[in-house]
Specification:
221 residues; alpha+beta; 8 helices
Length: 221
């Protein structure tokens, strides 16, 4: 019973995900606007070397005044670093949340889907910010960090923040929101697990009582 409930939920969620994902991707540029704006404002407020930010379809662009020397046409040229990130790698959690809500259908699920979409914006902005910092401070080589006199502990914090955003926040946040929005479904799983466990326990007890005791070795003549 419990396995069939989970199985139906997973099957429905996968079908919904397969249907929603292409639709979301067609409108991904619209979904990218709020988190890109929030991430850009945070970066401009936190770091003076950020000149500005922009959006190219679903790509978040960060413009900086961090200069690097590159060889162009046989001559050393100073260029300013620009970082580009595809929002899709941090925005797919919205579709995952929608698919799970459609599969379990909690009360007021459309409102919960809208609320979850808004609550995921800071999560996506976190990923964009740390991806930008990783691209500028680490992926571009040691010269950028030296140019900005960025401390070693700060570089470590960028690495940890980036990994936390990619591995934890982006995939786990929509699942946690769904668990919060649909507590009745989780309670149903626990209830069915408890109901299934009692007959098994009874069968084990009955089997133990049905085993005859070993002979005591005493015999009559």
């Amino acid at each position: 019973m419990r396995a069939s409930l989970i199985g139906r939920f997973l099957l429905t969620a996968i079908v919904c995900l397969a249907i929603l994902l292409p639709l979301w991707y067609k409108a991904v540029a619209w979904f990218a606007m709020p988190p890109i704006w929030l991430a850009g404002r945070i970066m401009k407020a936190a770091f003076p070397w950020v000149k500005g930010f922009g959006q190219e379809n679903s790509v978040a662009v960060l413009h900086t005044n961090v200069q690097m020397r590159i060889l162009r046409g046989g001559y050393d040229t100073l260029v300013e670093l620009t970082s580009r990130i595809d929002y899709s790698m941090y925005g797919y959690g919205v579709v995952l949340l929608w698919a799970m809500l459609l599969a379990s259908r909690p009360r007021y699920w459309p409102l919960k889907a809208l609320l979850g979409t808004v609550l995921l914006i800071p999560v996506q902005a976190w990923g964009l910010c740390f991806q930008w910092m990783k691209n500028i401070l680490l992926d571009s080589g040691p010269n950028a960090a030296a140019y900005l006199d960025f401390p070693a502990w700060g570089l470590n914090a960028v690495v940890y923040g980036y990994q936390f955003g990619v591995l934890m926040l982006t995939p786990v946040a929509p699942i946690l929101l769904w668990l919060w929005f649909d507590k009745r479904f989780v309670a149903a799983l626990w209830l069915e697990a408890a109901l299934e466990g009692k007959p098994e326990q009874k069968r084990k007890t009955a089997t133990t009582m049905a085993v005859p005791p070993p002979p005591d070795g005493s015999g009559g003549a």
